[in-house]
Amino acid sequence: MAETTPGPRYSERSIEERMGLLDKAKMHAKALSLGMLRLARPQRITLRYPMERPVLSEGYRGMIVLNNDKCIGCSLCARVCPAAAMKMFNAAPKKLRPVINYERCIFCGYCVDICPVEALYHVPVHDLVFENRDDMVFDLETFTKEPEEPEHVRKVKVVIDEEKGLRYVPVDSE
Amino acid sequence: MAIVERLVDLILWPPLFYYIIFPGLIFVMIFEIFLIWSERKIAGRVQMRYGPLEIAPRLAGAPQLLADLIRYALQEVIIPRTVDKLPFVIAPIAAFVIALMPLIVTPFSPTFLPVTTEGSILIAAALTTIPPLLLILAGWASNNKFSLVGSARESFLIATYEIIILLVIASMSFLYGTLDFLKAVEVQQALLWGILLNPIAAITYFVAVMMGTSRFPFEIAEAESEIVMGAFTEYSGIMFGLAMGISYARMFVYNIIFVLLFLGGWSPLGGIVTGNYILDSIILPGASVAIKAVLISLLMVFTRAVYGRYRIDHALKGGWGFWFIMALVSIGLSAAVVYLMEVF
Amino acid sequence: MSQQSQILTRRLDKDILEVFIGPQHPGSGHMRIILRVDGDIIVEAEPDIGFVHRTMEKLAEGREWVKNQPLFERMAILDAANCTLGYIMAIEKLLGIEPPPRAKYIRTILAELNRIASHLYGMGIFAILLGHSTMYMWFFGDREVFVELAERLTGQRLTHSFFWPGGVRRDLPSGFKDELEKGIKYFEKRLKEYEVMFLKNPVIRSRLEGVGYISRQKAAELGIVGPNIRASGIRHDVRIEEPYAAYPELDFEVPIYKEGDALARTLQRVDELRESLKILRQAVNRIPEGPILHERYLKMFTKVLKDVLETEKRVKLAPALFNLRPPKGEAYARVEAGRGEYFYYVVSDGQNKPYRVRVVSPSFRNSIVFKYVLPGHRVADLPAIYGSIDYFPPEADR
What we know:
heterotrimer
């Protein structure tokens, strides 16, 4: 590499002197005026979540959906699952298929990554609501269906911003 | 119709109106709800969030406090087996009532006051010193270590801020040459507002009141991360709501006194004459006093967004080492102002 | 008073009050500190840890090698990348492989993102312990920027599970560099505001100055690690002592403070934040092109796996990685996480599961501070000391 790199090193630093009375008064004034500034011009990053939903990033490890046609029933996904959330069962004679228990799933995405035929994939949904715990154990039918996004919510895109940190841009306005 | 007239008469009957409606219980409750709501909104704005919003977003979440109040009111009041029941129950109630007592001598207009006395400043100042003693009682009766520590801290603080407040009030009554709020306001109207006559006294009073009503950075007696809720750790339900309200009620009373002593009382609106007795003698002057008090209170709750809390020894050191001296200086300043007034 | 209203009491020394801080206390976290106080002064402190012990080391013995990664990141979920990196590095040592340079840089980027998030989390808790609710919200709000960046890189906000032995799971997403630069610029601006609001705020200053002093000698005796020992003037940072990932190629400073009090520890962390920004900026600019997984495993990729790697830049888990059987032996790895040094000692008996995994986490080593530093302070100093050593109970209890 052309540029010189001094590399990592330690640097001794020390705290400046204790504050005198005048410094204290100055810092009080500074802190109060910064507070006043933020009061006048708030910089909110609250996402009003159930009403507004962020568009999750590409490759978000959300809920997992099975493509039943691709699946070859190799059981690797069930074996790799660190939380034992995925189990194989006989969908038909000699036809093993995985099902998932979202009570246990930790969304590590190992099953998606180990699948040799790309039969499993993530969808950018992570917040389904279940009415009871039995519903959290998906059968083959629900597992092969992509979960539906709730209606009547504003979708916003999360943008990292130099001024505000995070900015939420409504999707339809783009 | 006779019944309606009777009812209106009853409501406007001065003792009832004064104690129950304005500036008594109902007005103080409204004030507290508004102040707690605005405290949360102010903190929310500074802290990159909204504050209360979910209940009625169009009203900026204002009914949230009503909802909280209803919840407190309906929640079970648990009285632990180990507490000393009588003082445990009496302490917050008595503290709240006594916290509002100084209002009997604070005038809201030259004519709108229930008790006319020469020593109204003295009585008000004396009454403001009682509620903290009941907080100590509450902590003692709770029989809980955290409550005890909270009470101990409160008792340390009382000695500091009460003396400062009393000295400052003394300096102002020395300046005005009276112990009567009415005359003090008259002097200010004739001369200048107290805050301009003696700014040191005003600042000292402001800080001492923050210390006394446990505003940040002096929220020491109920420091949550240290002693849970101070003297009120064992309280629940409506008793806890009441206990929380005490400091706001005290702040309101202190700020009424602040307005009367430093901000010219009913100065800007009180002089307007419209001919209507109620408007002239209650609403306009009362509104100007109350609005000023609310503004000062908002300034006090704003500090929550800027400061952490001091340690008790820092507060005591600051109180005795700096603000106590400032209080003495303010007496000197008052003497100087009185001397100057004599000369010119 | 009736008989019923008496409570059971235990004799203590005269004038000594025993106060239990935690586990159900707003300022304690998942632990208990038993304080004996004389008036307002702590005379004895007993840290009582273990409330969130999850037998992680034993659990790890029953799982395949890569399956332990999601387990170990639950020690310090806000510092997930740093606390699993050591485990992966230990496996790599057993296997005798080195990740390719690009993978090393991506690891560094994620590790630093996590360090910033972890420091901000710790300081947020610290601020609320001191009663400063605004800084609590600010620290947590700004942490969101880095959590968001980590999400874009790894696909998950906190539990990244991002490393494979010999590489990483994903390549940098497109546009990551610009987003990171924006985040860094924003955060640099915010650091100035932190200074006014928190670091130089007279109230906070007076709470921290001279509180919780740990001398150089004491710090070495107690064996504390991380920013805490560096604030006591001891030069110890694994990134320098035993370089890993891309750190030796980057230019940064590790701040050392001599004062050893709570203020020094706080300033040390803030300075580290600045250095982390520097590291991030360099790493994302200097990142070399190349594979992100060791070639030994790339060779075993089937066509589907190769397609996914090329189109989605996602490294699939080759069955060979899942069925790892590292040769018999033992290895250790050290990593400088947000709270200090993680030490992993791994023993393999040639099976597909580890024979033994020993984890020494920084919070565990720092927890001893409570016993030796608290006595002599006021009760009100407990939050200041607790927050300034950035103690995280789940990490200590494992």
